[in-house]
Structures are given as structure tokens and as C-alpha cells.
Design goal:
- By secondary structure, the protein is an alpha/beta fold.
- The chain folds into two domains: 127 residues, no CATH class; 200 residues, Rossmann fold.
- The chain is built from 14 helices and eleven strands.
- The strands form two sheets. A six-stranded parallel beta sheet has the order 2-1-3-4-5-6.
- β4, α4 and β5 form a beta-alpha-beta unit.
- One of its GO terms (molecular function) is alpha-(1->3)-fucosyltransferase activity.
- Keywords: Glycosyltransferase, Transferase.
- Pfam families: Glyco_transf_10.
Length: 352
Amino acid sequence: MKIIFDLQYQEMLSLPLTEVAMNRLPGLTWVNICYDNLIHRGYEVSLSSNVDSFEDVKGAILISDMYTAHTDKLISRGAIAHLVFSMESPNISKNFYSTYSSKYNYNYSYLFPGIFSFFGNGKQNLPLFWPNAKVSEHYKAKPKDVFLGMIASNKQMFNRRFKFIPGIIEHTVKKVVWSNYYNRLNKMSYTDLYKNRLEAIIYFSKFKDFALFGRGWKKQNTLSLQNFNQIQKIEPLEIDDKLETLSRMKFSICFENFRFPGYITEKIFDCFFTGTIPIYLGAPDIENYVPTNCFVDARQFGSFSEMNDFIRSISPEKIKELLENANNFLNSSAYEKFTDRCFANQILNSIN
């Protein structure tokens, strides 16, 4: 029996995945868990990009990361549309979320918990939780030489027709073409948090103990000249090791890309792994998955000034309590669903 992993970014991948690939593409360690298990059980496993045009794929089990350039051809040649998943947010992957419940008719839809009630059900729904790999405890012991930091990129949105168009233009075009889609999201207050993140950067850039890390900040891109010049004052740095950088921070501004139920990515967990206190904004139902005594909830503040006053007045005892609570959560059964092992088992169990 043949298993085909129809993944994104296959130009960077081979099976089993290398350490370099897994470091560059967070959330993919589950692939090797599945690969080892399936090979041990006698399955033939390949990436969709490695399937030859003359190869017989009739009856092959297709596991798709949304849709790729290979999906349609493989299904038309007889591959079974078995399981489709996505770890992208609905504001980014509009084409996928608006069609997944009908296009190709996969046997299983493996998606963030809030997706099904908003976009519709597939044949069989599996709630998806971000698959975190096991992380060394040594990060927690690192000295904290950054009081408050943020790791984020100043991104440009790419477009197939043009070499690139700035993110703000792309966003405007999307709003026009997909107005009904975005209006529906906005009515539920399911919105982008990029603006909130930028506002936080601009506010805290006034303080010498704030640091910004990430790619793209040395170019203006979609930033106003005023914001660009303000950000340059804090000398944002590009980094190679996210966890190493996070481990230096006492607090980290941890805003998701999008506000949506159940959409919880690696951002908050990486803080827990490194002994950093996250200031979280994202999933409106975060308390259903992560105890609120593990992080600072950004929703409690009416302004960044209030947030600043709070984190500067928090006692050492309270900081210790937050860190202990986060560590207890990581060692609890409630966290288990957020592991790469659990993610892989969901897929493997669907194949049994």
C-alpha cells in the first residue's frame, strides 16, 4: 500500500525530514513520526512531488496539507482523498477554507477546532492542535537579559501574477475580491492581528528594554516612513534560533496572526518551553485549551500603557507562579493534545 504526503514547500523537503527542514518549517516533526511508523508497518511512503507521471497511484492514500500543485492530478489518477489538514489561518488560506468541505471530498478533515462550526463539516472532522516537538529543558535556565521582546517578521505578500506586491495592497485586493468571505469573518470579530502587533512594536519601541527580532525590518516594505524610522531606533535583529532568542526574554509579546476560535500556534508554547512569560492575544477561547494562570492575557488591558504598567509592577512571586503554572501545564494531560506524537497518532489512526 502506498502513502503519499502532499505537503507544502516540498522543494525544501525529503523523507525522512532533515533537522534543517524541521527547524525552518515549525510544526513538521510529526511527519517523521508518521514516516517511521508507516515504513515499519510495510507501507511505501513518498512525497507527492516525487511521484512520477507514469506511476500507478490508484488506491494510494493521499494526506494533503491543503492543496498543492500535485493534488488534483493525483486524485484524478485514482489516489484516495483520505485526509486534508491545514495549520494556516483562515485569513491567509481563504481558497482552502472556502472549499475544503466540498472540493475533493476528503474522508477526513483535520483542522483547527473553530473551523467546522464556521466553514462547515467534512465527511469526518478531526480537531487539529499545533504539534509541538519535545524541547530541551536547558532553555529555561538561560539568563534573562531582555525585559520585553517580540519575534515577528515584517512580511511582504507574494502574488503569482506579479513578482510581489506589498502586503497592504494585497490585503486590499483580497478584501475586494473576497468581500463576503472577509465580511463574514469580521462580523464575528475574527480579524487579522498584524495591526495590533505593529501598534505594540511602535508603542514599546520608546523603551530601551524592549527588543524586536525577526526578518524584514531593515526594509520599509509596507510600513509608513514614520513607523519605519521609529522601528530603526531599536535596531531590530534577524535571528537563526528562535528558542535561543526567546530564552533571553522575561516577557514576550505573543500575538497570533489571526483571532479565531481554537487557532493556537507554537507562539505561546515556545514561551513556555523557554521560561518566558507570554503576553498573549489570539484565540478568543484560549482558556478552553491553556490555563489562564500560565500567561498574561492581553485582553485585560485597555491600552498598551496599561499593559506596560502591569508588567513593570508584577512581583517576583507572581512571575515565579506564572512560570510554575506553565511548567505544570506542559506536564499535564491537557497539554498532550498539543504534541507532535498526538498529531501523528490522529493521522496514523485514520489509516488503520
